[in-house]
Amino acid sequence: MFDEPALLLLNSALMNPLNSILAAIISIFPRWIIKPFAKPYVAGETIAEALVHINALNEKGFAATLDILGEHVQTIDEAADITKSYTEILDAISEQNLNCNISIKPTHIGLDISYETVKNNLFTLLAKAKELHSFVRIDMEDSPYTDASIKLYLEALIHYDNVGPVIQAYLRRSTEDIKRLNSEKINVRICKGIYSESETIALQRKTEINDQFNQLVKAILTGDGYVGIATHDLNLIDALENWISDNEISPDRFEFQVLFGVPMSGRLQALLAKGYTVRQYVPFGKDWHDYSVRRLKENPSIISYIFKNMFKMD
User: Fold this and answer.
1) Distances (CA, A) of 58 to 28, 41, 50, 87
2) Catalytic annotation present for 137
3) pLDDT tens digits, residue range 54-113?
4) Going from the N-terminus, what domains does the chain have, and what CATH number goes with each?
5) Candidates 3, 67, 189, 295; catalytic one
6) From the CB of residue 108, how many other CB atoms can be counted at a distance below 10 Å?
7) pTM to 2 decimals?
8) Which of 3, 67, 137, 139 is catalytic?
9) Hey, CA dihedral for 16, 18, 24, 27, is it positive or negative?
10) Shortest CA distance to 67 belongs to which of 125, 149, 28, 6?
């Protein structure tokens, strides 16, 4: 997934201990309290609601990727239902001629059940997407699923070219993963990583994560691949945009990616004006609660940011 959704845009005065306390206990709050915090970042609960947002984004010049919220299904029927919902989304995207693809979590279509279950469901989606000239992004979850997710991508790539993985820059292994995957003409999303991981598995310092993020993006762009640069870090965007310009990298080799609803102080429009593709990751569904709680725990400053806007605090 993505990183630091509104952190860089918040006033430092909002960065107080109360935010962290609220974030630590927010999972026990009733849904009606959490929903106002979720609303700006979740595109409704139904496919129809989500498609309204996709249409609006497309009209403004943005591409999109749709994600059904949820993960870790435990039965074959649940995994089949999610797969069916994604096929319906692909049909709707095609019928409405939207600039949008789909992002799926392996555990949402059966990885916790069995590898064969997730593989069969993924291949169903890839066949449907290929028929409709669309693309499937395999989201990366926490580290216990990294090997299986990469294996899934590599097996899919044998049969389909409309598929791409996600690599998390904070994982220590990611440099080697990119070296291995970059031998193919890869279409990869690079993000920082949001799951809580131990120091032995993941880099902990922001400067180290940013350095590795830079190196991974550059490794793709100096090869033959395509990269989705998924970050809200304006300094990181600046640095990579300058490098891309200096090295005369064609805009058809990359895109910038952000989470739906994250304020970026006009920066996204500026990127569009330069002719760059900007894709928004649009989550929707009835499982908005867990996604929103995770977002607030990861980024406590969002709490003050939304309170300020709700009550018009100066």
Assistant:
1) 37, 17, 12, 21
2) no
3) 999 999 999 999 999 999 999 999 999 999 999 999 999 999 999 999 999 999 999 999
4) 7-311 (3.20.20.220)
5) 189
6) 27
7) 0.88
8) 139
9) negative
10) 125
